[in-house]
């Protein structure tokens, strides 16, 4: 499934390909998030033609509640339901149970929770989230885990990690003892936890590695801890992960974060940030970011960056984009979402090119600093 | 500017072309409404490539308040501000003063009103709306009129019409005594009023004809009167309008209304209905309309109409479109808006083809009935 083509010499950055029945993904890669089976404000054909997305993400928790498994199964699976003939990764719903559900109770068998929509009661177990993701038919499914909050005590983080480990063993067994519902192969990724404690992170990486998933995710980061601590834990985790498996850092992040984590050996990313921030008027560019609602753009009658190939950057005057945002026009949200995702995928391509020609190390720190600058 | 190519034999339907410096428009035509310089939820390149829009409309009242004339003038006019190199028609703002403004007072010199946004005080006169539209730089500008409500007494409708006539004379003079601000020609259309009174409609048509505008609009209809009365007034008005001028029925309407009014000699239409109703989940098709939020579509796993060339109709399953609307996803609004406008422009092309091959009369009534049917 995963082929490692190159590891950079001075950093841990890697170049690889990940092959699924719906297409091959070049890594490092960013996966746009399509929570409810739609990447907000972006059309499927734009994701392919303009964003050049290679894989998108769907949220099991959300799709299970709306429209529900029956409708997606009747439609022939998630690919068919949303008309997307390219790779899809689905998470396990674990993170949303803890961040969205009104009420949840962790037991050994699984996570009991109430829907954030109507208060209805549900249970996710390591086994049934495999079954739900068999119904969704994602190319890559994630294992059920518990994501402890930051900060958590060492005791809490350890107990949580141990529960996650037991769940992951059960989830892996359920996966190995079941078969795809549709005519394509599915892979399963495990998730490393351990809070911000190096000993637990190390232990978890080893345990999860032994379960021999097709890929390994680093979970429980980017949940409020200082950014340097996130980098540190990522760096430590990748030291204990097998080279031949793809590594996915969940829920990260800003453009600069991606570069720093590629340097620490990460292959895959997902985050709602580019689309959510787009809807708030934050535009990412190769030279830093812009808050389009700022009055400084009101009378700025040139495009932001004529050389960057999105309509937002090269077709429209900044004064017009500012006007759209000031008036909450849907066109503003659509142009900015399309732009930010195109930028993220462009940044990943840049990173891949830099790894390929051995200039990543000399490029990424300065670039990350520039990307974090407000224009 | 306008060339009349053909008038149907059994109905008053006409085939023509309207030539502006930004392009030639085939009539009958529907003009998508871009209130604030954006057709809601549709991208400019989609308007051209997919909708096949030939001309769009901007609202003087809205653009004057936001972003204001200074910003649009600095950007080089409305075409340049919104990046639209095709024809634009702007209304005079008269209708919005009466429908949106918190507070307005009609005087002989013009309409005093307070902004619906911040309560600030403004005055529109027949002369300054010409000047504002010179700044906007629309290809076709409308004259300032008063649009009386329905129902209005004969006395009120007559007084209102007479004020409108005095304003139109002043507005026409202001137009003839001023020049474009940019490097393209502008035309000015007059507006016939007279409420729902045949004698006034006839008088107004004659008066406005004498002012020799480049085109003539029928105003004051589709404001709540019975549909048959709207058809009757339209029919009566076109009998008194010169054949060699384009005729624009303002603010109409549903697909069936368009066909009935083409049969009564109308060349141009505008209405927010296709985009507004799209956002509420009403989808127009050649075989009738659909309310996509209806539960009957929840588990409907086929496209609505594989033969109609929009993504909404032919790419996606109805269950998915239903899901998008039930969850207020922006993609639903975008797909439906794009679809409805594409449908309106397709319907106009159908009508033109039917007029060209002399089958309009035998086609339009049955088609109008079908279009008014709920699927």
Automatic annotation (TrEMBL), chains A, B:
EC number: 2.4.2.29
Pfam families according to UniProt: TGT
GO BP field: tRNA queuosine(34) biosynthetic process
Gene Ontology CC entries for this record: cytosol
Catalyzed reactions per annotation: 7-aminomethyl-7-carbaguanine + guanosine(34) in tRNA = 7-aminomethyl-7-carbaguanosine(34) in tRNA + guanine
Gene Ontology MF terms: tRNA-guanosine(34) queuine transglycosylase activity
Active site residues of this protein: 91, 270
Domain named tRNA-guanine(15) transglycosylase-like: residues: 12-369
TM spans (from-to): none
Region (RNA binding): 251-257, 275-279
UniProtKB keywords: Glycosyltransferase, Queuosine biosynthesis, Transferase, tRNA processing
Matching InterPro entries: ArchSynthase1/Queuine_TRR, TGT, TGT-like_sf, tRNA_ribo_trans-like
Gene3D superfamilies for this protein: Queuine tRNA-ribosyltransferase-like
Binding site for substrate: 91-95, 145, 193, 220
Pathway note: tRNA modification; tRNA-queuosine biosynthesis
Quaternary organization: Homodimer. Within each dimer, one monomer is responsible for RNA recognition and catalysis, while the other monomer binds to the replacement base PreQ1.
Listed PANTHER family: QUEUINE TRNA-RIBOSYLTRANSFERASE
Family designation: Belongs to the queuine tRNA-ribosyltransferase family.
Function: Catalyzes the base-exchange of a guanine (G) residue with the queuine precursor 7-aminomethyl-7-deazaguanine (PreQ1) at position 34 (anticodon wobble position) in tRNAs with GU(N) anticodons (tRNA-Asp, -Asn, -His and -Tyr). Catalysis occurs through a double-displacement mechanism. The nucleophile active site attacks the C1' of nucleotide 34 to detach the guanine base from the RNA, forming a covalent enzyme-RNA intermediate. The proton acceptor active site deprotonates the incoming PreQ1, allowing a nucleophilic attack on the C1' of the ribose to form the product.
Name of the molecule in the record: Queuine tRNA-ribosyltransferase
Organismal lineage: Bacteria, Pseudomonadati, Balneolota, Balneolia, Balneolales
Gene name for this UniProt entry: tgt
